[in-house]
Design brief:
By secondary structure, the protein is α/β, with parallel strands linked by helices. Helices cover about 40% and strands about 25% of the residues. A six-stranded mixed beta sheet has the order 6-7-8-3-9-10, sandwiched between helices. Strands 16-17-18-13-19-20 form a six-stranded mixed beta sheet, with helices on both faces.
Length: about 550
Amino acid sequence: MHKKPILTVKDLTISFGNNEVIHNISYHLNKNEILGIVGESGSGKSVSSLAILGLLPKNISKISSGSIVYNNLNLTTLSSKKYQNIRGNKISMIFQEPMSSLNPSMTCGKQVEEILFQHTNLSKPEVKAEVISLFEKVKLPEPQRVFKSYPHEISGGQKQRVMIAMAIACKPDILIADEPTTALDVTVQKDIIKLLKTLQEETKMSVIFITHDLALISEIADRVLVMYKGNIVEQGMVSNIFKSPKHNYTKALINSRPSLDVRLKVLPTIQDYLNDTISTEIISNEQRKLQHKNIYSKPPLLEVINVEKTYFSKSGWFTKPKAFKAVNNISFKLYEGETLGLVGESGCGKSTLGNAILQLDKATAGQILYNGVDITKLSKTEIKKLRKDIQIIFQDPYSSLNPRIPVGEAIMEPMQVHNLFNSDKERKEKVVEILNKVGLSEDYFNRYAHEFSGGQRQRIGIARTIALQPKLIVCDESVSALDISVQAQVLNLLNELKEDFGFTYIFISHDLAVVKYMSDQLLVMNQGQIEELDDADTIYNTPKKDYTKKLIHAIPKGL
């Protein structure tokens, strides 16, 4: 299939100031091959790939030693001018976040045209024809419409396809794909993976595919290298690494993702593998049945009856507003101590439903009964009281924390608003207790949000939510931005807190593996309606609807 490497990285060391972040790594990329680089945030996978393109931040970073050789050319010695001929032309990159990589003030067509004008001698009509054909190649619906659209007018998956079209426009020898599917639904992710594999087979280009998800790598790569704290800890053929991983870190990456077959009581984390403290205790079907008998024998805590949410869009001065039903006639019951999983693709209405239950965005029709009271009819003062009982953990902990106040104060704030405890001294003691509960120490009380990692921020978000001792918590995609092992820690934490405090969860996510692991009942949503509602295991083992089957089929399973 291939033999001669097209790219060789040898003894590469990269430092930021006095801090060495990549330690002497060596690997090669063959012609016509897909190489997977896997590791979590901070492992150095993106930094080492940006070095290939000469995109490391100028004044603060330096390549202390080593070489990056592409077709007998040492890239570390190139001038900026020479790099311009290679970047985007011979070596191209798809970035993780298409929204921030595309220019919001230019149409999608223009952005791809720019690259072709820069690197080819095609005429204006030829360039336009080439872009349309690229849009067809990456399977964009209505290429002519996307050509004229601005990035905000198309979906996340479509933006990612525009990025791919841009990356392959000049038929590069090497394509670096940096977490290109992290923010996408499983079904869209499956399409993008399939697309990249097809394009690679057609064009015979070499691909470096970077991700923190090993199961995903197994579906696309030939070889894989595993990075941890700036080192390559393991590399080899994908099948070998999956069947017999040598390093504990690799074992942890493979096993921290919730299994679809057995339900472990506690998910293993990287620390468990490194310290050899793995628990293999499982929740049996019998235990689950008993638990459910107990939960469902009481009256429901929350009852959603025929809820609808309609949005109106005005498209012009004299046109009638168009009605769009984001949530269409939804009914279900939620019981105390239960976790209800709410799953579906982006745009299916799951967050809108969550916001209606939280009274953040009022339902257009229907009733929402909390402890038998219809909360859609409450006054502002009554809603403020209700806020103590029904809370939310947001998807992005960073944007939901105030960057200007220390995190301890951010956790105390809701306690003050709801007059919990007698004094700030008591509140502070309580906050320290809660910080310990979510696995953070007292020292963190006076630190600011930017000083924490993604996983730690999510713990602070959880601490702030539980500070009010609510009864019902809506978790809105609250682990989707986290690394696999951090995700495992946060899921364990949520389950632990549920046991300690008797919380009831509505767990919203597009990741079926996670939802199945967490949930008692599962509600599958599609285009504002309920597709299926049943026990989580029943739905996974015997899905009735084609849509549910498609979602399950799209989960990366590993080898």
